[in-house]
Amino acid sequence: MPKPLTFRAILRARPCHDIESYLEWVRGFITARRYKDVVLCGHSMGGAITLLYALRYPEELKGIILMGTGARLRVRPDLLERCRQPGPDNSNWLASYMKSFKHVAVDMQPVLSQRAVEVGPEVELNDLLACDRFDVMDQLGQINLPAKVLCGGEDIMTPVKYADYLTEHMQNAQETVIPGASHFVQMEEYKKVNQEIEDFMASLK
Length: 205
Known about the structure:
The chain has 205 residues and is α/β, with parallel strands linked by helices. It has helices spanning 7-12, 19-32, 45-56, 77-84, 91-98, 109-119, 121-132, 160-169, 185-188, 190-203, and strands at 38-43, 61-67, 147-152, 173-178. The protein has 2 domains: 1-73 and 134-205, Alpha/Beta hydrolase fold, catalytic domain (Rossmann fold, 3-Layer(aba) Sandwich), CATH 3.40.50; 74-132. The chain has 10 helices and 4 strands. It starts with 6 loop residues before the first helix and ends with a helix.
């Protein structure tokens, strides 16, 4: 049984500065453990990694799940600026960052805050810049893997039109919009999201 990858191990790993590098890191993790029949699930930047995996190595996947993501991920300038000007002890950055989770259950807030402190604004800036350069809009038609596309109905970072575009341009995609949920739909409406994932996985058997 392979040893699980811990959050702190990820933090110690060599930084990746683009989606292509993240893709190869994830692929290395999967292939080193000889995982088979992989269904890769990604949220936001993770969705970009998943899309690129499906384009580069489709034979290694059984299906993909895309949550709160898009074929192009342009980043709002104010999000980049909050990382560049984080304030004393990163306090301004952290306060702004945590506003994104205002609809997540209260008992999860301390964990999310601690993870944010461990990562810091430099890492977020690195990842946001990687997202900002990502664009596979003209390649989606090459993806014929079974795909599930999930999006929060109130997501303003990767709005429903992003999910619509993914679904319309991939060959074998199904879309579900979760009403009332924002960008972090998997935490706000986890029961509904989990059910959608279970149903999709069952359809692949």
